[in-house]
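Handout, section 4.2: multi-component inputs.
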Amino acid sequence: MRRLPLLAALLVLAPAAAQAPMKLPSAPPGKPDPAAIAAGTYTIEPDHTQVTFAVDHLGFSIFRGFLSGASGTLKLDPKNIGATRLEVSIPIDSIYTTSRELNDELISTKFFDVQHWPKATFTSTSVVLGPDGKAMVNGNLTLHGQTHPAQMTVRLHGAGKSLMGKGQALGFDGRMAINRSEYGIGGGIPLVSDQVQITIAAAFEQQ
Amino acid sequence: MRAFLPVLALIAALPAAAQAPALPGAPETARVTAGTYKVEPYHTQVGFAVDHFGFSIFRGAFTGASGSLTIDPANPTKAQLSVTVPIASVQTSNPKLNEELVSADWFDAAKFPNATFVSTTVTIGPNNTALVDGNLTIHGITKPVRMQVHFHGAGINPLDKALTAGFDARMGFNRSDFGVTKYVPVVSDHVELTIAGAFEKQ
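Output:
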């Protein structure tokens, strides 16, 4: 019973804490301005990093799913884009679609075989800035235990002062296309397309 | 699950077809015959995207749609589309956010369990496209919206022998118009929908 007064004290204090959540700014802090990027080392902000994949289903429609829970680092100096280094790892068991049964099937040996290959990784090898502000990020994609060169097209979404950390935050929109058969994920081909379109929302926090 | 597992079974049963397979669906409008089509819920997805703090795009999806499309290819501007999507089907990469989204802070699914779209006018464009104007109801509020639609493909589904037609569609609106204002403007007012619509002829 001696805990009760403590609990009561907490309850008295709690409303004040509940009314003081993270103070939101009156406008989005991120701007699509490369000049707002601070040089440094960033880590992935997993709650707002999402990988969306899209395949063609029987030639009738597009079917989409998601991966999340990414981790990794980005070393970035806007004055020396060529020296950018990106390393990302994504747990395969984070996969979800609009069908729970399909989620289970996707991580099985019919597709990703998550027990043998729990993660997908992407490690950059070179980064080239294009004239339109987009960057071509060349790297090695490892999926299902197999590694192949892959190219990601990346556009700065926004950069600015972080609301969560002490430094800057930034985000990118990325696109990539792969043929999953090259990675030994052949389930359902060709009725479910070999080609996979990948759309990436990547958020980073400066360290 | 009837929608996915049989595909694998079908492929296993038809190894010879793997050489030069023809997909059941092709982007030929002539394959869409006049009649009424029902939403095929397993392959109909409503994706949404918002801007998060100006830093990144955040996506999620609704599923479990129902509804019908009545279309006569000889008179496509008379096509009629009516779709209902349950709000409780919302999912994102964050289970906690999924719960928040259905709460009174956002969609208030207990009071307004469905979003609906009912077409009013169809305008045919080039290259298998159409503009579909209609009334979108979200959160109990109805507003006119325009959907850009691209015909994806049609044909006989080898699994259930149904004539199936699919569309890719996009739509943008401001969620505050529907009274869903939480975190505007740091989570964008503007919402982009990316819709995959699959229909089976009745």
